[in-house]
Every structure is written in C-alpha cells, then in structure tokens.
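Inputs:
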Amino acid sequence: DTAVSQTPKYLVTQMGNDKSIKCEQNLGHDTMYWYKQDSKKFLKIMFSYNNKELIINETVPNRFSPKSPDKAHLNLHINSLELGDSAVYFCASSQTSSGVLFFGPGTRLTVL
Amino acid sequence: EDQVTQSPEALRLQEGESSSLNCSYTVSGLRGLFWYRQDPGKGPEFLFTLYSAGEEKEKERLKATLTKKESFLHITAPKPEDSATYLCAVQASAGDMRFGAGTRLTVKP
C-alpha cells in the first residue's frame, strides 16, 4: 500500500563512512527526487530524475550520487560522510505534469 | 532569485480560535503554489495546489487563497489534530520547486 517508501528510517554512522539510502515508489510517477531537510525544517532539493535522466542537480557536493536502476527506484549514495551531512533526507515522486510531490517517510541521518 | 517566506514561524491557538498562515513569494513565472502539511517524524503531505490569483481551495477546516504576491492558509475553528507544520512551495515556470521554512501550528484543547 505504501506509495513512497525509503530505507532505512534511521542511520547513525561515523565521519568518513560511505552509506546508501534506498527509495521506491509504486505510484507509476515519472519523476523522483531527493530532498534534504535541515534542523530548521528547510526542505531543499538535491536531485531529481525523470525517465532515468538527471534533470536537476542543485549545488550538492559530488560526494552525493543518485542512482536510478529503474523508473520506480532512486537511491542516494553518500561518500566520505561529514558532520554537516546530518539531516533528514526525503525521497519524493511526482507526475511531471501535476507538480504535486508525494514524499516518503524520511531517513534521519546522524553523522558522529 | 525565487523566494518563499512564511509567517509566522510558529502559531499557538486555542481550539476553535480561527487564524491565517501567510506565504509570500517572488518567482519568475508562477506555475503553481502548493500547500503541504508535515507531522513530526513524517514526510510532507499534499493539501492544495493554486494556479492563479483569485483562486481558492477548501478542505474541511482549511481554505487556501492566492494573490499575485502571497497565499493564505485560513484555519477555521481548528482542532488539536490540526497541529502540524504547514509548508508552502512555489513552482516556477522553469519547473523548479522552492519551499518556505514552514509555520509550526499548535492547537491547544
């Protein structure tokens, strides 16, 4: 039943480690996104994928790399984690024509 | 640069006390203005989309309105279950979506 799911829900790791967050949507949407929500609750877009093509990439460090094996999945891989990467990461999907975003439950990343 | 500013940052109401949340925006070519609700520990949930000045949308105790510079989310006779953070987002003609910082609403019984 879950429309947009992501795993894990919580991720605690040490500085310098590499980690991945997985996302899947079963809504048949053509675009998927990764958003970062900082401690002040500001949601900022990191990436979006439309039909397996990266179409938005804001000023995100290249330690972050999105990977989309198919239209229903968009995973986020992070290399060499830093303290400042601690945040909640949300996956979302939409049908491009509507603009309405459907969000996953979020992954709270804590870098120690 | 596109900007979205929400006010107030936090709002505390008594149950039944109606009020409004504000979302001011500057954007190059508005494609749509979106309102979302976010509960603690969850992802934002879509409420409304508004496309042009003068448009209004309603859902239960919530009513969203839009002018050329701002949008209001009116809450009539709120209940404790309306407590959440309300996020406003604007989509520019280029397709970029920009979110405001949100208004954290607390409704006390």
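Chain A has a mean pLDDT of 92. Flag for discussion at group meeting.
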